Amino acid sequence: MNATARVLPFPGPGGTAAVLTGLGAWVPPRVLSNAEIASRLDTSDEWIRARTGIHQRHIVDPGMSTSDLAVEAGQRALKSADTDRVDALVLATTTPDRPCPATAPDVAYRMGLERCAAYDVNAVCTGFLYGLASGAGLIAAGVAEQVLVIGADTFSTILDPDCRNTAAIFGDGAGAVVLRAGSAHEPGALGPFDLGSDGRDADLIMVPSGGSRQRSTVTPAPAGSEYFTMAGKAVFRKAIFQMAGSAQAVLRKAGIGLHDVDRFVIHQANVRIINGVADMLGVPVGRFVRNIDRFGNTAAASVPLALTSATESGELRAGQRVLLGAFGGGLTWGSTVLRWPDIEAM
Amino acid sequence: MSPTVLQRLSGILVSYFGVEEHEVTPDATFASLDLDSLAIVEFAMVAEKEFGVVLGEDEVSPRARIGDAVAVLTAKGAAGND
């Protein structure tokens, strides 16, 4: 990270801020316990808890897909914002209903948001942060006055059933926020953002087959290559260093320090990664929101799901300064800050 | 009793590098723990904060053993009950 990085005003000259006005989340009803995973794979409840901090996760039942979760979370966010109209819907997901077309238009249609702009963003576990920045950009550019940003993933549908590491980590879920045009001085105004990527390490987190690289070979995909893979140790390390670095970068842009942040809501990847980020930043881990014990790693849904949990529990209150951060496949990472608005999560 | 240099080094590898505690033995190389050259730079950064000791680029490499790193850190004055 460049110590002499230019401090950019946010929003830019004449720009309009994106203000968070609604929040909602939804997880499928089926709970998958550690014991259930341990009954078919070589692992144990104790092993999973000690290494990941996860006690259980929710997964979809057969026939349920990412769009179903996205619709539920989106409806809750609209209700929370007390609105039934948006100009654009941005869906962050790595597990779309189908490879083509994007899932967002179907979600918009089923929510009664007909004819609004709708598209998917894929930045894996950073997807929600990229989605927020995309929504804020639509507002700043005058393309939209109100945007629904949803993070939804069903990683249970791409996991290798025989891999104990990924099976224990991921859960399914969705979270959503409503953004509207407003002033940078209002509670809920997003920004600045720090976003980045490093494609040199694209292979660390991937689904090897199913895309053009494999399909253009015209040979059948190797058995098992349709499943999600992750290089555990390298991802663990990079998640800690990149999320800590991105948090520091966004705070520099905002012209504030770590002590100005009341709550850190970062991607719920693994409780040891969250603890590592806190240690690296020198911030007490009690200022980090953690709900990974109940939901596991829900990919693009994890940040809005954690925001919803923390708002409902009272851990997150109006007026607090909040830092949002994430890291994911790509590699990608992102952070932003906001003053928490007076909203009720649904 | 204060932790040894090896225990403190092990703590760094477990907390920040996703290594399992039982994998950290004096004979294990950094490479065998999946630390590549970039990871070594990050390791040196954290070790400097933890031990107050600067590790040169030629002093720790992916091929180095954990025991070698403990020796270098100790020779440079890293505190521990070794």
UniProtKB/TrEMBL annotation, chain A:
<comment type="subunit">
    <text>Homodimer.</text>
</comment>
<protein>
    <recommendedName>
        <fullName>Beta-ketoacyl-[acyl-carrier-protein] synthase III</fullName>
        <ecNumber>2.3.1.180</ecNumber>
    </recommendedName>
</protein>
<keyword id="KW-0963">Cytoplasm</keyword>
<feature type="active site">
    <location>
        <position position="267"/>
    </location>
</feature>
<feature type="domain" description="Beta-ketoacyl-[acyl-carrier-protein] synthase III C-terminal">
    <location>
        <begin position="251"/>
        <end position="340"/>
    </location>
</feature>
<dbReference type="Pfam" id="PF08545">
    <property type="entry name" value="ACP_syn_III"/>
</dbReference>
<keyword id="KW-0443">Lipid metabolism</keyword>
<dbReference type="GO" id="GO:0004315">
    <property type="term" value="F:3-oxoacyl-[acyl-carrier-protein] synthase activity"/>
</dbReference>
<comment type="pathway">
    <text>Lipid metabolism; fatty acid biosynthesis.</text>
</comment>
<dbReference type="InterPro" id="IPR016039">
    <property type="entry name" value="Thiolase-like"/>
</dbReference>
<dbReference type="GO" id="GO:0005737">
    <property type="term" value="C:cytoplasm"/>
</dbReference>
<keyword id="KW-0276">Fatty acid metabolism</keyword>
<feature type="active site">
    <location>
        <position position="125"/>
    </location>
</feature>
<keyword id="KW-0012">Acyltransferase</keyword>
<comment type="function">
    <text>Catalyzes the condensation reaction of fatty acid synthesis by the addition to an acyl acceptor of two carbons from malonyl-ACP. Catalyzes the first condensation reaction which initiates fatty acid synthesis and may therefore play a role in governing the total rate of fatty acid production. Possesses both acetoacetyl-ACP synthase and acetyl transacylase activities. Its substrate specificity determines the biosynthesis of branched-chain and/or straight-chain of fatty acids.</text>
</comment>
<keyword id="KW-0808">Transferase</keyword>
<feature type="domain" description="Beta-ketoacyl-[acyl-carrier-protein] synthase III N-terminal">
    <location>
        <begin position="119"/>
        <end position="199"/>
    </location>
</feature>
<keyword id="KW-0275">Fatty acid biosynthesis</keyword>
<dbReference type="GO" id="GO:0033818">
    <property type="term" value="F:beta-ketoacyl-acyl-carrier-protein synthase III activity"/>
</dbReference>
<dbReference type="GO" id="GO:0006633">
    <property type="term" value="P:fatty acid biosynthetic process"/>
</dbReference>
<keyword id="KW-0444">Lipid biosynthesis</keyword>
<feature type="active site">
    <location>
        <position position="297"/>
    </location>
</feature>
From TrEMBL, chain B:
<dbReference type="InterPro" id="IPR036736">
    <property type="entry name" value="ACP-like_sf"/>
</dbReference>
<dbReference type="InterPro" id="IPR009081">
    <property type="entry name" value="PP-bd_ACP"/>
</dbReference>
<dbReference type="Pfam" id="PF00550">
    <property type="entry name" value="PP-binding"/>
</dbReference>
<feature type="domain" description="Carrier">
    <location>
        <begin position="3"/>
        <end position="77"/>
    </location>
</feature>
<protein>
    <recommendedName>
        <fullName>Carrier domain-containing protein</fullName>
    </recommendedName>
</protein>
